[in-house]
Amino acid sequence: MKKIYLILIVLMSYTGNAQIMTQDTTATKKFLIEGDTIPRSHIDLAEVIIFNKLKFTSKEERIRYLILRRKTLKVYPYAKMAAERLVVLNERLNTIDSKSKRRRYTRRVQKFIEEELSAKLKKLTKTEGQILIKLIHRQTGDTAFNLIKRLRSGWKAFWYNTTANLFDISLKKEFKPESNHEDYLIEDILQRAFYKKQLESQASALSFSYLELTDKWSSKDQKKK
User: Is 175:135 a contact under the CB 8 Å cutoff?
Assistant: First the structure.
């Protein structure tokens, strides 16, 4: 696992020049109360999410969900921090004209991130590492492989991914809650944790609707019964 830890350190350190889209996390909807004359535009309400009650078909399924929740809650802060570092670093780099100064500043940030994360990332299991790879894609909009390829080199990305594959981890893994049920469960875990203030919310760089995902997967579950 030491090699995987080193790969994650490099990934978290070299997201310096990547770009992400920041999103407003406060969604609003307009409503017109039936039978009333109040214009639609006069009511501005914050979006309220009503979560479905968690249902499991077996004890084993419930245990798998609880394990996934524990791992997701553990690694999400790292992905969130990577996205935040990305924004701050990009803003700072945009003010530096000299290429040499930009490189020196990037190296200082990389060293800081390595020292800050090294002890914590060493403790991640391979499944936690794979969830982190997915969440980095969720928060930055790019895969770990592409980030390394663009910021280091294609050769480095190839060898990092080859090493990761030995531990059943793929740096090319994407976060796809629309088509991957486990990814949807991860998103569901995050949304519930945001609502309960267990985690600090950060908008995803990917374009999807949690409510639409819930409807989709709920419908599929109903068809199985």
Answer: yes
Let me know if residue 62 belongs to a domain: yes
Return the half-sphere exposure (C-beta side, CA atoms, 13 A cut-off) of residue 66: 8
The number of domains in the chain is 1
Please check whether residue 133 is in contact with residue 79, taking contact to mean a CB–CB distance below 8 angstroms.
no
Q: Does some domain include residue 201?
A: no
DSSP assignment letter at 34: T
Q: What percent of the chain has pLDDT over 70?
A: 58
Q: Which residue has the tokens 């390595």?
A: 114
Could you list the residue range(s) of the whole structural domain that residue 167 is in? 2-17+55-175
Report if residue 69 sits inside a domain: yes
Contacts 24+ apart (CB under 8 A), 67-71: 68/131, 68/182, 68/185, 68/186, 68/189, 69/189, 71/125, 71/127, 71/128, 71/131
DSSP letter at 131 equals H
Question: How large is the average pLDDT for residues 155-181?
Answer: 72
Percent of the chain surpassing pLDDT 90: 30
Higher pLDDT, 53 or 174: 174
